[in-house]
Amino acid sequence: MNSRWAPAPTFWPPLRRAPPGYAWGKPFSGRVHRRSDRMEYLIRLINLTAELVSLLVVVWVILTWVMSPYHPVRRNLDRLVEPLLAPIRRVIPPLGMFDVSPIVFIIVVQLLASLLTNLLATLRLR
Prior knowledge:
The protein is mainly alpha-helical. It has four helices and no strands. The protein has one domain (about 35-125). Helices cover about 65% and strands about 0% of the residues. The mean pLDDT is about 80.
């Protein structure tokens, strides 16, 4: 028999799919037992928070282009995002019609999240 046409091995375990949301919710559910588990929880929480804040700013930027400033959704997002961007706008004013403060804010948030997670990962290994 030609080895090219040999049947596939049958000893492989079947692929099991996790239920929806399982991989995301697992670090946030149940009891936290060891120090390394707590550090893992904090690392995931920091990363999740950074991603959500970055996503909020991106959604706000898109809505400023397409939505009326008097729309309730836009006004509520303005109340959330404007205080975050105001300190950056004081240092870096808009360049003509282009406001770079959301880009700078997202970069700073991602850098801070990266620094904090690296610090916590280093502490977890000790």
